[in-house]
Amino acid sequence: MKFVLSLLLLTLSCVSASAETPRIDRIEIVDYGVYSAHIDRQAAAPGTMAGEMNLLNNVEHAVTTRMITAQLGVHFGFRYTVVGGPEGTAVSLHHVTIIPNPGLNNPANHRRKTRNEYDLTSLIGEQSYTDYSFDNDWEIVPGIWTFQIWYGDRMLAEQKFTIVRRRGG
Question: Domain range spanning residue 85?
Fold first, then answer.
């Protein structure tokens, strides 16, 4: 399983230091639904089923929807902007994906999970992106998937998607 969460590569490559303490007011969801994307490379993500995630580029919004057809290769998620200050300051955000029961069951290691968690850096005022892609049959779990983004003990964004089986499939 490849847990696909990414930030635009520009966001990942920037290391912004500021003497001022970052202030995060909120997260604005820019768009959501189905996307197309190219896998650039992988990075460690110990709190996920596979222990790694794909970093993406050429992310393109395809369809605005919360109803996602369960099929291999589909990317679903959302783009967001961290609102606060100072602009361009790097902040670490905690991403949580809640998977409906019975959860993911990786046949390679027989681990079952109903949550994937990891930290990623975003820049205040810049657009970032988070998603999940179905890379293996065992990842396709119908039901409501919930994406959350936290800063400390504050949940700043939540987006839900309903995964449905294809008709005739």
Answer: 3-165
